[in-house]
Amino acid sequence: MNFTRWSARLPGTQRRAAARTESAVSPDRRGDGSVPAARAERSADGHPVPAVDVLPARDVLDRVPALVALVHGPDHRIGYVNDAYTTAFGTRPTGVPARDALPELAELGLLPLLDQVLRSGRPRTLKSRKAVDGRSYTFTCTPVTEDGDRDAGVLVFATDVTDHAEAAERLRASERRQRETAVTLQRSLLPQELEQPDDLRIAATYHPGGTEAAVGGDWYDVITLGGGRTALVIGDVMGRGVRAAAVMGQLRTAVRAYARLDLPPHEVLQLLDGLAAEIDANQIATCVYAIHDPNEGRLVYASAGHLPILVRDENGVVSRADEPTGPPLGTGGWMHSSGCVALGPGATAVLYTDGLVERRDADLDEGIAALAGALAGATGTPQVVCDRLVRSAGVTADHDDDVAVLVLQHPARTGPDGDLFRNAALELLGGVEAAPRARAFASGVLTSWRFPAELHDLGVLATSELVTNSLQHGTPPMRLRLRRTDRRLIIEVTDGDDHLPRRRRAEPGDESGRGIAIVATIASNWGCRRTPGGGKAVWCEFVLPKG
To answer: Interhelix angle for 453-473 vs 434-448, to 10°?
Structure first.
């Protein structure tokens, strides 16, 4: 075959290089048909160098380290393979269709590409494919014409890129290991098992982003505060990777510590704001901290730049808790405030991160509205609702952001189940008769609730000590509240003084100081907190015997 009669349509890079060479030729030489400078050069000592056109093409191709094959016709019959191709895949007979004689190209799916190049007359490239010899090649197929015949043939040029492919695979493996480390760290910092308070049913889920997205800092938590109250938290640390997960872990630990102080939601966020700035001044996070009190039938919350809580009432109507909200944690200089939203029996609330509702091609409000629509029709247990919301948002394994969702329900209890949840309250007017009245009230209520004699006596004793402490150190208005659930008895006394009692060691000669110590000894748990309108609440609880 006469290679000098064939002309190859060069790939883009070679065409641009040729164009630059041609543009470098002086105008007075272009018009006279002279040979371009690239074809007639002289060496440094002035001797002429042979032009490209007179070089023997076969000798050049035989010495090219890349793999070269020339096929022609619609069935791609072999016209030529160079020595490098033969070394890689063995001797190939000429004149035989590529489908039969070049099985290595068929296995790589290169034959349809040859058809496409022949039809379009344009070069095509297949990047980094592993061949049967175990090495990786990048194949460039270039149409070849002879005397204007576009169907003449295709030049296959394969470059060995094994080293590059192995380096890329090592890089991908390293990135996978880093991502797995971040996901493992992220999951280990999330609650391994959610706390389940008496009055709420809760479920949560976390979905890391796809392999193309680094793990973020989404987190959630459920913290039982005692006295029937529950704190619910969800947050999102801006950023990706191990650093974001580590910051998330520090914030979650801090939230649990601050929650034990039983502070209002906005005060907890105020403390977190300062801590976030200390952890990393360049790292910010959004967060919602909410407290549910079954006695009040509402969710008190504070938001630091986070998305609004969605609440579906017992009638299926969904509302958004938009205000108040402040800037993200770590920005500083903002006084957060608390708001509230009704959460009575039969209601469901959803806390979530932006990965659930934010899309690049849609407005954020549209995503929240779509989530609200999905919540309106989602029924069943909290876990079922959680899964339905994730599916309705189109979250898949290759999602571009991580997602955290926390669903809580305040079930409406009726019948025998409702008998296990009872409340009783007594206003304490003060005076010497207040303590005896409180003891008699507690005794009657506990008797009607059919508690065992031992638990009855302990409950009356705890009531007496808490009421006496309030009468001695507190101010009106005073109130005694008894509450039972299916798991525990809760006794709570509120008054108008905001001085919190503390447990102390009473000396033998002291006239007082033993009341809280007695309560702490006989009760399963006890605590105190300041109430929003001023004053305090002191409570204790007893775990009910099983069966």
So the answer is: 150
H-run or E-run covering 428: strand 422-428
In terms of Cα–Cα distance, which of 490, 496, 434, 502 is closest to 462? Answer: 490
Asked whether 276 and 329 are in contact (CB, 8 A), the reply is yes
Question: How far is Cα 242 from Cα 222, in angstroms, rounded to an integer?
Answer: 23
Tokens of 409: 């329900």
Side-chain-side CA neighbours of residue 538 (13 Å) = 28
Determine the pLDDT at residue 511: 56
349 within 8 A of 343, measured Cβ to Cβ = yes
- Give the three-state DSSP class for 63: helix
- Is 436:510 a contact under the CB 8 Å cutoff? no
| Stretch (H or E) spanning 259 | helix 241-259
Contacts of the segment 275-283: beta carbons below 8 A, 24+ positions apart: 275/250, 275/251, 276/247, 276/251, 276/329, 276/330, 277/330, 277/331, 277/332, 279/247, 279/250, 279/251, 279/330, 280/243, 280/247, 280/330, 281/330, 283/237, 283/238, 283/239, 283/243, 283/244, 283/247, 283/330
215 CB contacts (<8 Å, ≥6 apart)?
179, 182, 183, 186, 208, 209, 240, 241, 242, 244, 245, 402
Contact predicate 156/61, CB 8 Å: no
Residue 7 pLDDT grade (very low, low, confident, very high; cuts 50, 70, 90): very low
Torsions phi, psi of 322, nearest 5? -80, -40
- Indicate the range of 84-93, 174-183, 193-202, 461-470 predicted with least confidence: 174-183
- Calculate the alpha carbon distances from 344 to 29, 243, 312, 482 in Å: 91, 39, 10, 19
Structure pTM?
Answer: 0.71
Q: Locate tokens 């102080």: which residue?
A: 261
C-alpha to C-alpha distances, 383 to 201, 292, 398, 478, nearest whole angstrom: 9, 19, 22, 40
Radius of gyration of the chain (CA): 39
285-293: strand order across its sheet: 217-226, 229-237, 285-293, 298-304, 339-342
SS3 content of the chain, % helix, strand, coil (to 5): 35, 30, 35
pLDDT digit string, tens, across residues 304-359: 999 999 999 999 999 999 888 889 998 877 889 999 999 989 999 999 999 899 88
Q: What is the pLDDT of residue 536?
A: 94
Strand partners, 545: none
Cα 15 from chain centroid (whole Å): 47
Burial class (CB in 10 A: 0-12, 13-18, 19+), 56: exposed
**Beta bridge mates, 529:** 537
Measured at the CA of 357, the angle between CA 404 and CA 387, to 5 degrees, comes to 50
- The DSSP 8-state label assigned to residue 507 in this structure reads P
Contact 541, 488 (CB under 8 A): yes
Which residue in this structure is represented by tokens 């006794």? 491
